[in-house]
Fold each of these.
Amino acid sequence: MAANIRTSSIKTLRSVRIHDEDPSSLWDISFARNNSETTISPSKSATIDKKEEEDSSAPLVLPALVHPHIHLDKAFIHGSKEYSDLLPVNGSFEEALHFTTLAKKRFHHDDLIKRGNQLVTESVAAGVTAIRGFVEVDSTVKMTCLEVGKRLKKEWKDICQIQLVSFAQDPIFSGQHAEENWRRMEDAVRDPEVDVIGTTPYVESTVEASRKNIEWAISRAWELQKHVDFHIDYNLNENSEAMVWHVLETLRKTGWTASATKARVMLGHCTRLTLFSDDEWGRLASTIHDHDLPVSFVALPTSDLYMAPLPVGENFKRPHVRPRGTLQVLHMIQALSLDTVIGVNNVGNAFTPWGSVDPISLACLGVGIYHGGKPSDVAMLYECISTRARAAIGLTESSVDIGLKTGYQGDLLILPNVDQTGFGQTRPKQTVADIVWDPPEVSTREVVSNGRLLLKNTAMNRLASIAVESIQDS
Ligand SMILES: [Zn+2]
């Protein structure tokens, strides 16, 4: 699929908005000839009050989007004919695990390529140019998902950077297949195309095995100098031991600090932490800060909200009481200085049957979940799906500011103001808040990757009339 996406070089995006203190300013963005470095300068057409018609149509340009956590092999199981008998029945977590195991037994190369390409194509269309993508390695799928992940990584490399996670969704230190699962992971993590070691300590059958799972992943990641990424503390049970403490303790014993390595540590889900007291949160933050631990958290709200415990058993007597828990991203950043981002996790499967691959829809959901309606909060939510996400997965160490500055080398998302109704009615969206409060349709967005415009069917016409000074076909 990637080979079918045409691209074009760009000289200048003229008279566009950027995220700026003065939203009435218009800017020109020029691209260096041989790389994606940009020069940002005030537009000659100056400020907005000149020609109202032209000004209201000036597109907003922001840093492109990032998936810090998404599963490449489990996407769009729902909607595929061959899995039509595996749609949710009671929607429980156990059922999702069971149905996914059954689905995995039917995974094959062409099917994985097809669904993976669908996922990446839809993501790129939405504005995503970097992905941390999980592929499972175990006794059921063996190395098939990894091989497909490697092929997707190679085929998309000029348009979307895929950081590959060799992922143990299954236990590696308990259960019937532990030995084979562990052995296959040992092989997979040494593959030079694998960038990240991912495991799921909570699927182990004992706390002891969960601890061993954490210790193995950290030890192997440190030895190979790769990132490590845990699905962890995914429950709302106050009586369960939070494994995050064991992760931090193991990192400390290993000597894994931000100043010692560029390899990073990601903790995903962590819904159990929403039951922490203020003291526990304080202790968590000070442990990370005092010991210089390069730890980030990724909230996965569409999965977390859906997978929260169902009102069964005792709880069924109160079916209207449905506790939900997902990391409070804005509070974690603002009050605790904990590095936190937001990810899609899954689309079209039993863990997350709802939602799309569009990260802006997640930021929009965050406005409600985190009570983040004020413009500065909304801008931070955009950072969490863009610049902060890129830094958290270790692709950049540059600023998380979404206001473009000269020298910016990342990719861009262009948001033209166009009629979305089909009836000739356009409602201009001019600030990042306008975009996050009410995300524009994916088909209206344009994407610049590696300094080149991705040519959707609409791009040449739309951008020729709005912003692009010079496009050369290639
Ligand atoms: Zn996940």
Amino acid sequence: MSTQDSTRLYCSICKRRVKGFKNRSGLQQHETLKHSSYNTLPSHIQLVSDSELSHLKKAIVKELQKRLKNHHNAIRKQVFSIHCSEDAFVGIFKNHITRYSPCGSSYLCQFKGEKAFDEIGKILDDKSWGERNYGKG
Ligand SMILES: [Zn+2]
């Protein structure tokens, strides 16, 4: 517990904690508005072994391929979840995280344009993780 007014939430990114927020959504909104490009990784992240990371990468590729197969005509966003630790996720995507939200404990990575395909292939150590020319996205 902090010594600050415990009924209010404070932004952990702002150095001067002048303003507290009544609830989580207020804080989240503030983060989105003011810190949309904040991507300093939290200090609690631990290094994950390469073998664990490569295991996870394979699992991600497998899941992606399953999705692409089931929806090969659909050019839209696909959502899937995979069980992994925060440390492992950061271990894989650390150089590609464009936004970190301390309030929501969430990370954002974006891959766009022509290089995106190869970029993801490099991250996942699998150049054939998906089908190229898969629509426009
Ligand atoms: Zn702030």
